Structures are given as C-alpha cells and as structure tokens.
Request: fold
Amino acid sequence: MTGQIIDGLAVALDVRSRIKQAVCELKKRHDVIPCLATVLVGDDPASSTYVKNKQKAAAAVGIITRDHKLSSSIKQYELIELIKLLNQDFSIHGILVQLPLPAHIDELAIVDLIKPAKDVDGLTPFNAGMLLNGKGNLKPCTPSGIIELLDFYKIDVNRKDAVIVNRSNLVGKPLALLLLERNATVTICHSKTKGLDEKLKGADLIITAVGDRQHFILTEDMVKNDAVVIDVGITRDKGKLMGDVDFQAVKEKVSWITPVPGGVGPMTVSMLLKNTVSAALSISKKEMNQKL
Reply:
C-alpha cells in the first residue's frame, strides 16, 4: 500500500478562504478590520523570513499588520514598554513576538506580558492554563493546525495510541492536550526516552517534531502498517528542505502522511490568521458590551 498524502497547502487554502470571508463579515457587521502587530528583535534571517511570510499571508486575507523591527541590542525594559503600548492600543487585536528572542531577554517574561486576549500564538501562561482545562480559545498554532489537518481528512483519533516526539511548549505539550480532548491515548517522547523505537512501532498516530536529522530520522522499520504520520520537523540539507521522516520509504507503509514542505508548515500560518480574526471578534464584542 501507499499512504495518502495529507496536503497542507490545500487545507491551508480552504482555511484562508474561510478566514477571508470572516474578515469581510467582521468589517461589514462591526466596522472592524483585524490588525496584527508583529515584533521582530534582531536580524536573524530565518526569523525575518517567517515574519515576512506571516505578514504576506495576513495581507492576502485582509488582515492589517503593523511591523516592529527592533535591534538585537534592545534592552528588556524597552521591549516591555513596547508590549505595554501594543496591549493598550485598541486598534491592535493580535500581538506576535517572533521567537526566539536574544539571550539577554527573558522570553517567558515577555510572553507573559502579552494580553491574553491578544495572544495569537497561544503561549501566555493564561492561555496555556485555559488549554489545560479544556477551555482554550487562542491555541498554539502548530498543534491546532495539526488538528485541522486531521479533521479535514476525517482521520479519527478516538481510542487511538498517539506518540509525539517533542516535548516543547510550542508543539508537544499543547498537542498532547488537544489529542487527549479527542480521547486519544498520548505518549510524549524526547531525547531521553528509553525504547523509543518500540513505542513508535505501537503507535496508530505519530507526530514528530525534532528538526535534526543527524540525531533522529523516522524510518519505515519504526512505524507499523496503516499508521498515520505527521511530520513537523524541518531541516535544510544541501539547500533542500526535509522533515524528520524518511518520506519515500515510510509512505509505502502508512495510511496517511504529511510531506515536507507542504504539510504542517502552511497550517501554522493559517491558524495564526484564524486566531487573529477570533481575537478581533472577541475584543470587538467586549468593547461593544462595555458601551451598552
């Protein structure tokens, strides 16, 4: 058998079409245009590219962006003052601080400062706590994008054994919570996990987000027949983008698989746009209620 491709580009187009319609409705009914503030500290090429791609995607669906490019030598108190200003600006509905930040800045302190209602990355302790309690509204973009892919292709995770090879706050931990909400049994693995291969062989659903092929590659002998494989990892090898998975070999054994590129990546940006529109709608309704 050959696994069916989970086409992230196609699903992202579907999601962005719905987002564009929602933006039009928001403007028509509430006279509100969603606005996303992006904050980029330093001149890291990868981070700069990510922010530009997010701004371009936002413009395509009618979301306004406000760009804040800051020197890598910026003091923490100066960045704090900017976040406070963005929090207080009623015309801004979402705040995106591109991570990672320079080493001299306390990343958690900055993320924690973002107003939860404007936290379109879903990373503040408040939103993380809401997700833990099954009440999440603004959820981390990559995990929610993976759930969107599963829903689009009607891949049911109920009573399935899922293994996540990642324990980060960006992917592994929030994704585990989202899968638990759908009655999957979830195992989180990482670099210190014993017997990783055996755990993977028993999984109905594998999500891998290592991003370092020198230390980990998911090969065909590590997956069982008919498993679903979601590849979040990204590695650039000799100018070519690759994931964590030995794609050509694994594809012949599984039921569903995401490619890299063209799998999870487009969904991450799409869910950021979705969160921005959700934040704009929520903030607008709150403002309207305060006026009544």
Q: What stands out?
A: The chain has two domains: 29-118, 141-265. Residues 158 and 182 are 6 Å apart (CA to CA).
